[in-house]
Amino acid sequence: MPKPGPRTIARYSEQFKATAVRLSLLPGVAVQDVAASLYIHPFMLSRWRRQARKGQIVTKGVKLDPQVAAELKELRKLRKEHARLQMEHDILKKAIAFTSARRAKSSPSSSTVKARTRSE
After folding, report:
1. Separation of alpha carbons 118 and 95, rounded Å
2. Quick one: which of 79, 84, 86, 65 has its CA closest to 30?
3. pTM reported for the whole predicted model
4. Distance from C-alpha of 48 to C-alpha of 15, rounded to nearest angstrom
5. Hey, CA dihedral for 69, 73, 79, 85, is it positive or negative?
6. How many Å apart are CA 17 and CA 34, to the nearest integer?
7. pLDDT class for 94, splitting at 50, 70, 90?
């Protein structure tokens, strides 16, 4: 439910827009990661990128902090690694559940019969 009252619209400076566009154009950096790190919607960043292509936003001469670019690349790498580990974890959970269910289904008498025949 929306809040009553007038809508507030965030206004961003041209410098902020140009910096966001330059960050999103770095190789190995995704638009979604830049948008998330700047707390803006990815659609807004995509619109700014389109405006920059048309020349409405000037991105030349914008200084980028190399540390920010490195952090964005590291964030992307960590998210990929986290997704891979999450998938491995889910597979292991399913494997444990499968083997546990299989053990529960096997009758205890069949395992004791096998043990007796081995000992005899």
Report:
1. 29
2. 79
3. 0.54
4. 12
5. negative
6. 12
7. very high
